[in-house]
Amino acid sequence: MAGVSLKCGDCGTLLRSVEEAQQHAELTNHSNFSESTEAVLNLVCTACGKPCRSKTESDLHTKRTGHTEFVDKTSEAAKPISLEAPKVDEAATSEEALNADASQDAEMVVPEVDKTIVEELEVMGFSTARATRALHYSGNASIEAAINWIVEHESDPDVDQMPLVPANTKVEAPKPSLTPEELKAKQQELREKARKKKEEEERRMEREREKARQNV
Ligand SMILES: [Zn+2]
Ligand SMILES: [Zn+2]
After folding, report:
1. Where do the segments described as Disordered lie (predicted)?
2. Pair 44, 26: CB distance under 8 Å
């Protein structure tokens, strides 16, 4: 049987395609992929259609939503892995090279990002530049990914500068893995966290003001 997935030798994660493996490598710096005949699980929730790729994920979905019925569509989704690089003919290659050259002198613009998420981040107290930057570099996918990015890059010297990309750059948003209701719950949770943090901060400032007054 041909391999139907790529297995990360560093953490054991199964990836469905070379693209997924590349994404995984970028996110984790893992690089030991090997072809595997283990198919990536595809458990689909019968109530809302959410696909889960592991038992852990479907359990989590059950916990969050109360949905308990899953159909195992693993064999339908499994496709033989192709490790060959996509074939390109000479003409296409040189055209691509030309485009690459052109994009080097391209005009730099602020990347397009999801404005509603930027607004949400602004409400949480992040600057527009930081929100835009985080959203762009986290794949313009979700508020959660953007916040994770901010947490990791908080001390970057340019974190509050508007990001600039060549005018013709396209960022493809990965498909959201959460259902809309889960996403909503997640955002609620994050807002709650941000609010608590702010309150703590205010209490701390209050205490310091108090201390300062007593010292006078
Ligand atoms: Zn890994
Ligand atoms: Zn469900």
Report:
1. 159-216
2. no
Ligand 1 center from residue 29 Cα (angstroms): 8
Ligand 2 center to 58 CA (angstroms): 9
Ligand located closest to 43 CA: 2
Q: Which CATH number fits domain 105-216: 3.40.190.10, 1.10.10.10, 1.10.8.10, 2.40.110.10?
A: 1.10.8.10
CA of 67 to the centre of ligand 2 (A): 5
The bound ligand whose nearest atom lies closest to the alpha carbon of 66 is: 2
Give the per-residue pLDDT at 103: 47
Sorted by sequence, the CB contacts under 8 Å of residue 93 that are 6+ apart come out as: none
CA 7 to ligand 1 center in whole angstroms: 8
Q: What value of ipTM does the predicted structure carry? A: 0.76
Residue 202 CA to ligand 1 center (angstroms) comes to 40
d(CA 170, CA 112) in angstroms, rounded, equals 9
Strands (E) in the chain, as ranges, are 5-8, 14-15, 33-36, 43-45, 51-52, 70-72, 108-109, 165-166
> CATH 1.10.8.10 spans which residues of the chain?
105-216
Is residue 110 packed enough to be buried (19+ CB in 10 Å), middle (13-18) or exposed (0-12)? middle
Residues in CB range of 196: below 8 A, 6 or more apart = none
Nearest to 122 by CA among 186, 194, 193: 194
The bridge status of strand 33-36 relative to strand 51-52 is unpaired
